[in-house]
Amino acid sequence: MRAEANNVRPSRLDVFVGVAVSGLGVADAWTEPYSGLLTGASIELVAAVSGFAGCVLLVRRRWPIGVALVVCVLHAVAFTPAALGVAMYSVGAALRRMSVLIMCAAVAFISGMIGYWVTPRDEDIREETWSTVFVVASLAVGYAVGLRRDLSRATADRLADLERESKLLDAQARSAERAEISREMHDIVGYHVSNIVLTAGALRLAQEPKAPDVAKAAEQIESYGRQALEELRGVLGALSREAARDSPAWSDGFSLQELADRANRVGQHVSLSINGFLETLPWRVQKALYRTLQESLTNAAKHAPGAEVIARVDCEASGVLISVRNVASLQRPESNAPSGGHGLAGLGERIALLGGTLSAEPQDGGFKTTVFIPHHGRSEDISEERV
Question: Count of CB atoms within 10 A of residue 139's CB?
Fold first, then answer.
């Protein structure tokens, strides 16, 4: 609390209170028949001291005890009840130690009674009673306001702690869910892909002497299966919080050109042009470009078999743009082609996480997919999301 108080600057309310108390003290100098220890002094001197008491209140939040002591002295000298009340209020609002509050109240009471005791006047006990009630009431009101402020601050801190605890529990739940997904993918997908690789390898060895074409096709199947296993391991690593934070689950060997070459080897007609240096892009952006071309080639193979696919990547000043378009196909697509049904939707979510945009629509009998990713998107702010 002391560190916070040292950084407090006078607010508009403090300035208003100081000006109001100064004005009231100056006016009081002309109306009161007595002026504390300055009884008999000139009105100008009493007014100056009373006005100075209001100016001291500008720093009452920063040094409440110091201001209260100064005002007590000024009150004993020139009788400044308004300044004394505000000073006692500030002490009550800032302090919580009851012994200190009692000492401040005693000093304020004595400063208020000095003028009565030193200057002979025919006053009764009501003056002392009024001085005591005034000091105690100011302290009590300030103490109540400060206590309520402390309770509000404690409640806000508790709510913030609960929110942080909720986020932590949510993160732990998501981490556990990722681990569960990782195990399920490893047990199910990894098992079947491994069997495909083993079967393709056995077919290649068996048919290589008799049917080279079949052996070559089996070798391609085996190669694709091994690649699928490598990418699966990368995805499983990305599902782990530590892996996602420490190292990207991405292999530099998976380039766009290799992806286009593999598609050409299996019968697709893909032309790829790259304008710029993709290796300088963040790994998340490179991965998004790879997945865009991969999804586009997969959709073209399923829905437009034999059609020419034209892919272009441009590294611009504002971002990177990739467009993949397949022309109209003269062949009828297979009706039972496997499909997850979430390719473009998942790709759109991936691009959105990077602050980019995705458009996919028919064009001239074919289909065109366009993705733009800005250089300064949300990728730098993503530390735990799976892209």
Answer: 25
Residue 355 DSSP SS3: coil
pLDDT 10s digits, 189-203: 766 776 777 777 777
CA distance 288 to 350: 7
CA nearest to 319, candidates 350, 345, 354, 294? 354
CA atoms of 21 and 80, how far apart (whole Å) = 9
| SS3 call for 369 | strand
Helix 98-118 × helix 125-207 angle, to 10°:
150
Query: What is the pTM (predicted TM-score) of this model?
Result: 0.46
Q: Which residues pair with 320 in a beta bridge?
A: 315, 373
- 319 forms beta bridges with 374
Q: What is the pLDDT of residues 251-260, one digit of tens each?
A: 444 588 888 8
Q: Is the pLDDT of residue 45 over 60?
A: yes
Q: Report the distance separating Cα 351 and Cα 368, nearest Å.
A: 16
The overall longest dimension of the chain from CA atoms, in Å, is 132
| Angstrom distance (rounded) from CA 144 to CA 148 | 6
- Spatial contact of 272 and 256, defined as CB atoms under 8 Å apart: yes
Q: In this predicted model, what pLDDT tens digit does every residue of 321-356 receive, in sequence order?
A: 999 999 988 777 665 555 555 678 888 888 998 999
Strand runs labelled E in 260-356: 269-275, 308-315, 319-326
